[in-house]
Hints:
Elements: H1 2-23, E1 26-31, H2 33-40, H3 44-51, E2 54-59, H4 62-70, E3 76-79, H5 83-92, E4 102-116, H6 127-134, E5 152-156, H7 160-169, E6 181-183, H8 186-195, E7 199-204, E8 213-215, E9 221-229, H9 234-247
Parallel strand pairs: 1-2, 1-3, 5-6, 5-7
Antiparallel strand pairs: 3-9, 4-7, 4-8, 4-9
Helix pairs in contact: 4-5
Amino acid sequence: MHMNSLKLAVAGIVCMLAAGVADAQEIRIGGGGASLATIFAPMKDQFEKSSGDKLTLIQSLPTKGLIALEKGEIDALTTTVPLATIMAEAAKEGVVVDPAALQQQEIGKNEVVAFVHKSNRIKKLSKAQLKKIFTGKVTNWKEIGGADLPIIVVWGNETPGQNALFIKEMLDGEKVTAKAIKTTDYQNIREMVKANPGSIGIDPRGMAMATVGRVDIPIVTAPIILITKGKPSAKVEKVLNFYNEEFGYFSR
Length: 252
């Protein structure tokens, strides 16, 4: 009798665990690296442990993200690029999205920071200095009080929102030097700066690490928006509510 009761208890626990696994959901958030690094990457582990759900982050260019959202491949898109701009780019690729079918909301701010090699003794750069560096008018750190070392500008090809914001706010619309070393995304920008003395690049604040140096620059921010087809689903709302309750960065 005792053994039967034990078997029933074990079976009950197994059923409850199985039910818990069955109830777990995957929430797929796509979008740019700046938005993901600022909002969702820092909360991912904590959210998954607390909820039992899986938060899948899919980094892509904003246009690819919008197309994925339209196809139902992700649950929400997050970006710093204006929706009208993304829709125009998607249309060029043959994907026309009805704006009335989409809903967007601001969920945070992305701050652009400047990374330099850890050995760089420069601690602060003005807008004028940044403009001269990134447009190629200043080519050696000694010209602005640093070491006698050529400046290597690192520039991302897959960071359109950040690039456009920086060019507008810090370069007054001028083009980045043609001598800039081109790389891909935010992580590669950081890693290239980390590996090359004399280098400088821009990235979201959320990409900062102790292994790379950072200089103070004028504040450059852009809103981070979340885009969904219609109202956010219950599982997307669950993520947003968790973020708001734990981090409190925006009002719902």
